[in-house]
Amino acid sequence: LWRFGYSARLLKTNHFRTAASNTSFPAVWMLLAQYSGRIPGPFVVVKKNTFSTMPETVEDKANPELYSPHPGVRGMTLLDREAFKRTVVVPALKVKKEIVNSLLKSLKQLVLQRPGLKRVVEDPEDEDSRLVILDPHKIPGFSLGESEQQVLKELSVDPEVSRYNLELTYENFRSEEILRAVLPEGQEVTSGFSRVGHIAHLNLRDHQLPYRHLIGQVIIDKNPGITCAVNKTSIIDSTYRNFEMEVLAGEKNLVTKVKENNIAYELDFSKVYWNPRLSTEHGRIVELLKPGDVLCDVFAGIGPFAIPAAKRKCRVLANDLNPESYSWLLHNCRLNKVDTKVKAFNMDGREFLRGPVREELSKELPLMKEEQKNAFHIVMNLPALAVEFLDVFRHLLVGEPCSAAALPTVHCYGFSKQEDPAKDIQERAEASLGTSLDGRCSTYLVRNVAPNKEMLCISFQVPADVLYKRPCPDEAKPASKRLCTSQGFSEEKLLS
Fold first, then answer.
1. Alpha helix locations (H) across 268-318?
2. Which residues, other chains included, contact 95 with Cβ-Cβ below 8 Å and sequence gap of 6+?
3. b/e burial code for range 422-458 (CB count within 10 A of at least 16 → b)
4. What structural domains does the chain harbor?
5. With contact defined as beta carbons under 8 Å apart, do 274 and 246 qualify?
6. What is the pTM of this model?
7. Which residues form the SAM-dependent methyltransferase TRM5/TYW2-type domain (predicted)?
8. Cα–Cα distance measured from residue 387 to residue 393, given in angstroms and rounded to the nearest whole number
9. What is residue 451's three-state secondary structure?
């Protein structure tokens, strides 16, 4: 045993002594190997009488690897579908064809249930009989238990279990099984992706990149309707919210159509931002709106907030700095017949707030009274930067504050890596606004973006003392002095 480098301390442990006391030397060696991590557990607990007396092969054993592709595909980078073929031995019952259905009902828990594989096949030796394929994981010894044999007896079926050579091809394996067989053992297998119309959007890890073209083709093969697979090759640009991508497999057409919350959108995925994981959040915010409300979307993208809001008979001002997003926003407004209800802008977010939004607020807020049901909403969905834009609301308007009920509600998104993300985003929002939001805001966890990184939405009504700048009481002062005193400089300080 010392030849294999095992410590004497291992031999002294109660766990090992108990296990080894009733075990033969070869099994002890296996136990030691398992204990050290060199051999996985499923290969250790083995009893010879569990299996048939035929020569042992991987196919004969009812282990988790039964439906794995041929081991020769390991390391493949260029997809060869023929290389995945293999034959496995599975249990089967010979049954007269007229009672096949009865047998399937009686033994449904034991019958093979794998999608894409036939449970009943023709008997090559008897045209009046069929072979019912059983699940080898549930028939480990190729023999049935007493209860199952009693069922067969009642159906006049021979209880002897036959061995059937089942041919498996590339089409029979799931994408996870294919990728697990191809990638180096022990490495993470990612078969998940975001679907954007006919496009599968993947975020591959570094160790998967040598296999990226194969992975892309497998995703296309195994997901009907997917004709293009792409991989993100850079982080999202915080200015235009798009990113570089590589087409891994399939067609290179990245103009696609998606449907979200029963609304259709068209876009060029290589030039604009679209995230299907935000559909629930888009719907949540839109559900807050009522007909007649005003929505100002500062970072509108192609319109997932703006267009459904317009369909709810809200008045909408939608803006995006990215010219491509602005162009697709106009296109989607026309596509959904709301182009007359949405005013679209192609501006910097700050300029949009200081220009069209301020103008709309100045016009609408004085008209809103306590008893009115209409509300003013401002959506700021740029999680990487939106909180930093909140300082624009400081003294955005001049005059006497409107009623508290009419103050605009802001829905601002942000990322957080802190242990208390809700507290973090509130503190950052307060720093930008220059006031406390305690008791005046709510935070909503949108989704987990990455390990220890959350996306949140903080919603609040802009406090009147933040939004409004009261007019200077002494209008007779020179304009320069009125400006300075309104900004906090006293006349004495100016004279000094």
1. 279-287, 306-311
2. 103, 129, 130, 131, 132, 157
3. bebbbebbbebbebebeeebebeebeeeeeeebbbbb
4. 86-168 (3.30.70), 175-259 (3.30.300.110), 273-469 (3.40.50.150)
5. no
6. 0.73
7. 193-464
8. 11
9. coil
CA distance 27 to 47: 10
Q: Cβ(306)–Cβ(263) under 8 Å?
A: no
Residue indicated by tokens 């809200």:
314
Cβ neighbours around 190 below 10 Å, total = 15
Take residue 476 and report the two structure tokens written for it: 């007779």
Band of residue 469 on the pLDDT scale cut at 50, 70, 90 = confident
How far out from the chain centre does Cα 21 lie? Answer: 50
**Model pLDDT, residue 33:** 39
Burial pattern 195-221, b for ≥16 Cβ within 10 A else e, equals ebbbbbbbebeeebeebbbbbbbbbbb
Pairing mode of beta strands 376-380, 409-416: parallel
* pLDDT tops 60 at residue 305: yes
Q: Which of 42, 53, 45 is nearest to 143 (CA)?
A: 53
**What would the mean pLDDT of 98-104 be, rounded to a whole number?**
90
Task: Give the chain's mean pLDDT.
Answer: 82
Half-sphere exposure of 334 (CA within 13 A, CB side): 6
CA-based end-to-end distance of the chain: 91
Distances (CA, A) of 269 to 208, 415, 438: 23, 23, 40
Closest to 315 measured CA to CA, from 291, 346, 350: 291
- CA 120 vs. chain centroid, Å, equals 37
Task: Determine which helix (DSSP H) or strand (DSSP E) holds 149, and give its type and residue range.
Answer: helix 146-154
360, two tokens = 């709309």
Instruction: Give residues with Cβ within 8 angstroms of 425, minimum separation 6.
Output: 387, 414, 416, 443, 456, 458
- Amino acid 6: pLDDT: 35
Using N-to-C axis directions, what is the helix angle for 175-182 and 212-222, rounded to 10°? 160
CA 328 – CA 339 distance, rounded (Å): 12
Dihedrals phi, psi of 401, to nearest 5 degrees: -60, 150
Spatial distance between the Cα atoms of 461 and 428, rounded to a whole number of angstroms: 16
| Cα-only R_g, the chain | 34
> In residues, how long is the chain?
496
| Helix H or strand E segment including 478 | none
